[in-house]
TrEMBL record:
Residues in Four-carbon acid sugar kinase N-terminal domain copies: 3-232
Gene Ontology MF terms in the entry: kinase activity
Positions of the Four-carbon acid sugar kinase nucleotide binding domain: 258-413
Lineage: Bacteria, Pseudomonadati, Pseudomonadota, Alphaproteobacteria, Hyphomicrobiales
Protein family (similarity comment): Belongs to the four-carbon acid sugar kinase family.
Gene3D superfamilies (UniProt xref): Four-carbon acid sugar kinase, nucleotide binding domain (3.40.980.20), Putative sugar-binding, N-terminal domain (3.40.50.10840)
Enzyme class, UniProt record, top EC level: transferase
SUPFAM superfamilies referenced in this protein's UniProt entry, alphabetically: YgbK-like
EC number: 2.7.1.217
Highest taxon of the lineage: Bacteria
InterPro entries: 4-carb_acid_sugar_kinase_N, 4-carb_acid_sugar_kinase_N_sf, NBD_C, NBD_C_sf, OtnK
Primary role: Catalyzes the ATP-dependent phosphorylation of 3-oxo-tetronate to 3-oxo-tetronate 4-phosphate.
Protein name: 3-oxo-tetronate kinase
């Protein structure tokens, strides 16, 4: 195994799996699979990159550290050459964690300092300049992410945001150094390590910067960041002759379909609204879900009755509506109820023969995929930046798409269903 990724949520895991499987241009990427939780089985003989999807973004820091170290242990046991800690391109975390505690714990276990921390993902509009995170042309804290139901991001200054999460100083490598090339980045990281800095925020404005940073990281035991940080990592191994460069798997899965959206992100709400103009769509009453007055089987019936017409059910709501629900029931109770509900719906759907399933939202995807208990997923073709088709071999086989809240074109849901069916 060349690269092992520890991802802090499920959609984030498929985002970076997509990047590793795709690689750059014609060079191809690595043969990649996505595992849900720390695998119980050994990796397949052909796996060059293994992505372990945890649900550790929003849990207590000590638990996130423990799970991440367990994942690291599995990766090391299977000879993994480079570990990547994948977190959100919008740096979702709180003053307590979990990016700092997990990043530092992995660095300590691997005996390294001067470790890259770069959430940039330019294809999705996330860039880092002078240590500040932008979402398209807005600072992170003015981008809507300051309203996130679980991790409100209220400061775009990544060094300032990360500092209280860390036990050691946070370093910085500015854009000027990155544009000087991989050797300059390597020297800057070594200097940071010398000063005792464990996590080092590195500027990244475009894909070329990310390739420079990845080149500088060749041979480094640990890299951390958003999926963009993985852009140039397969190339290091391909150029060294350790991998041949391969293409993601074609899917060709047809059959009954369903779309579940629990994400309240702005982009998902736009996609839901757009989809509703052309397809059967049902808004779920979140109060009724929390109070257990809504029966999952009724929702399943709606979806099954509308098979072939791309039916969608959603709890996606604007910040004011989410605020009302959270004030009424408490955020953890509301989230647990909604996530659990989607899990039950998904189980019924798959047991009833649904073979193409789209889920919007990281927490929602985690709940759904955990409820389904699917085994390792192969990485199929990209639907939109950061979202591939995922293929499960279990049973008759099925295709999944786990969409991060803010990813995807306006017609993402239709595109994803079509992509799953495409043989090429
Ligand atoms: N109407 C609602 N009111 C309150 N909470 C909700 C509502 N709908 C969904 N939720 C909760 O909000 C959370 C949304 O998080 P989720 O990670 O699924 O989406 P996201 O944050 O948009 O996606 P990502 O993490 O991929 O960016 C979930 O825990 C879900 O249970
Ligand atoms: O990095 C991102 O933005 C996504 O992969 C993600 O993790 C959103 O949950």
């Amino acid at each position: 195994m060349l690269i092992g990724v520890i991802a802090d949520d499920f959609t984030g895991a498929s985002d970076i799996a997509n990047t590793l499987a795709k690689g750059i241009g014609d060079e191809g990427g690595l043969r990649t699979s996505q595992h849900l939780g720390v695998p119980r089985q050994d990796p397949g003989p052909d796996e060059e990159a293994c992505v372990i999807a945890l649900k550790s973004r929003s849990i207590a820091p000590a638990e996130a550290v423990a799970q991440s170290l367990q994942a690291l242990e599995w990766l090391r046991r299977h000879g993994c050459r480079q570990v990547v800690f994948k977190y959100c391109s919008t740096f979702d975390s709180t003053p307590e964690g979990n990016i700092g505690p997990v990043g530092e714990a992995l660095a300590k276990a691997l005996g390294v300092r001067g470790v890259v921390a770069c959430p940039a993902f330019p294809a999705a509009g996330r860039t880092v300049y002078q240590g500040h995170l932008f979402v398209h042309d807005r600072l992170l804290n003015e981008s809507g992410l300051e309203n996130h139901p679980i991790n409100p991001m209220t400061d775009a200054d990544l060094r300032r945001w990360l500092k209280p999460q860390c036990a050691t100083p946070v370093g910085f490598v500015p854009a000027g150094v990155v544009s000087s090339g991989p050797e300059a980045v390597r020297t800057a990281l070594e200097a940071a390590a010398g000063r005792g800095e464990t996590l080092v925020i590195v500027d990244g404005i475009g894909d070329a910067d990310l390739v420079t940073i990845a080149t500088a990281c060749a041979g480094q035991p640990l890299v951390t960041g958003g999926s963009g940080i993985a852009l140039g990592l397969p190339r290091n191994f391909i150029r060294a002759g350790d991998a041949r460069g391969s293409a993601p798997q074609a899917s060709a899965v047809s059959g009954p379909e369903a779309i579940l959206a629990g994400s309240c992100s702005g982009r998902t709400r736009e996609q839901v609204e757009y989809h509703a103009r052309l397809h059967p769509t049902l808004a779920l009453d979140v109060g009724a879900i929390v109070e257990e007055r809504l029966n999952p089987e009724d929702v399943v019936m709606f979806l099954r009755e509308n098979e072939g017409r791309a039916p969608l059910v959603f709890t996606s709501a604007n910040p004011a509506m989410v605020g009302d629900i959270q004030a009424r029931y408490g955020a953890p109770r509301a989230s647990a109820a909604v996530d659990g509900f989607f899990g039950k719906v998904a189980r019924h759907l798959v047991a009833g023969g649904v073979r193409r399933l789209i889920v919007a939202g990281g927490e929602t995807s985690g709940a759904v995929v955990s409820a389904l208990g699917v085994g390792p997923l192969a990485i199929g073709r990209e639907i939109d930046p950061g979202v591939p088709v995922l293929l499960s071999e279990a049973g008759p086989g099925m295709a999944l798409a786990l969409k991060s809240g803010n990813f995807g074109a306006i017609d993402f849901f239709d595109k994803a269903l079509a992509r799953m069916e495409a043989a090429e």
